[in-house]
TrEMBL record, chain A:
GO terms for molecular function: sarcosine oxidase activity. NCBIfam families: soxD (TIGR01374). This is Sarcosine oxidase subunit delta. It comes from Gluconacetobacter aggeris. It comes from the Bacteria. One of its GO terms (biological process) is tetrahydrofolate metabolic process. It holds the Pfam family SoxD.
TrEMBL record, chain B:
This is Sarcosine oxidase gamma subunit. It holds the Pfam family SoxG. It comes from the Bacteria. InterPro entries: SoxG (IPR007375), TrmE/GcvT-like (IPR027266).
């Protein structure tokens, strides 16, 4: 079980959270081309290493927040509020 | 109160007025002031004033348990600021879990640490009790106010009794 540190509630068990996919993907304007729109909907980096991703404390405070997680080890490096810039964390196993 | 194991009793709480306020700082401040509080409680804490209790379940969310008299004042206090005020009195059912083993019984359904040092009196949070969303509020060292959505009530009560049965069994065999 992962221990996830909600920026509002502190460390909680993984079962209280819902995964929200890759973070920092900006929604384009409505009049972009279909290719750009489909890239927004479907294309992800599939990172091997430190990934910025969204989580929601769905069985707690209900808020979305971001986390940096190493996809190779499941180790979390940072938790931060939506709207904050991605923290500078080097790729390290 | 029904004793569900040695050192723990369970009771259903009577109907009460429950309101959810969502909004930014100004809305939470206004709601707290209308209950006679100086400020909204910090995250995961409860504050009680003459007008009732405010439970900080989220950074932009309070569950308000107002006295009957304070109920009407809440609308007036919130009117000037952007907010959402929803009455959920009938959505939830409340339980009172009381006794020296109350924390152990909750721990049988939830991975939170219910030691007094990590879950002190006056702390409240939403969490999971087995598979059901629940709100747990420690009102005293050995007493908890537990709320769940109404349809989860019978399930959560059955789970609490099941854990209590296990504790009773271990008391007999130790
Ligand atoms: Zn949270």
């Amino acid at each position: 079980m992962l221990l996830i540190d909600c920026p509002y509630c502190g460390p909680r068990a993984e079962i209280e959270f819902a995964y929200g996919g890759e973070a920092h993907i900006a929604r384009p304007a409505a009049d972009v081309s279909e290719a750009e729109w489909s890239a927004f909907l479907y294309l992800r980096d599939n990172t091997k290493g430190v990934l910025a991703e969204r989580w929601r404390h769905s069985h707690g405070c209900g808020r979305f927040f971001n986390a940096l997680r190493d996809t190779r080890t499941d180790q979390f490096h940072a938790f931060y509020e939506i709207g904050m810039p991605r923290p500078d964390v080097r790729d390290a196993v | 109160m029904v004793e569900i194991t040695e050192g723990c009793a369970l009771a259903g709480l009577p109907p009460m007025v429950r309101l959810v306020v969502q909004g930014r700082v100004a809305a939470l401040d206004a709601a707290a002031a209308s209950l006679g509080l100086e400020a909204p409680p910090p995250m995961l804490r409860v504050a009680s004033g003459i007008g009732g209790s405010a439970l900080r379940l989220g950074p932009f969310e309070l569950l308000i348990l107002p006295t009957w008299e304070a109920r009407a004042g809440l609308d007036a206090a919130l009117a000037p600021v952007p907010h959402s005020l929803v009455e959920v009195s009938d959505r939830n059912v409340g339980f009172l879990l009381e006794g020296a083993r109350a924390a152990d019984i909750l721990a049988g359904l939830c991975p939170l640490d219910f030691a007094l040092s990590s879950f002190p009196v006056g702390m409240v949070t939403r969490t999971l009790l087995d598979k059901a969303d629940a709100m747990v509020w420690r009102t005293d060292a050995h007493s908890f106010h537990v709320e769940v959505w109404r349809s989860f009530g019978p399930y959560v009560e059955a789970q609490l009794r099941e854990v209590a049965k296990g504790i009773s069994f271990s008391l007999l065999t130790v």
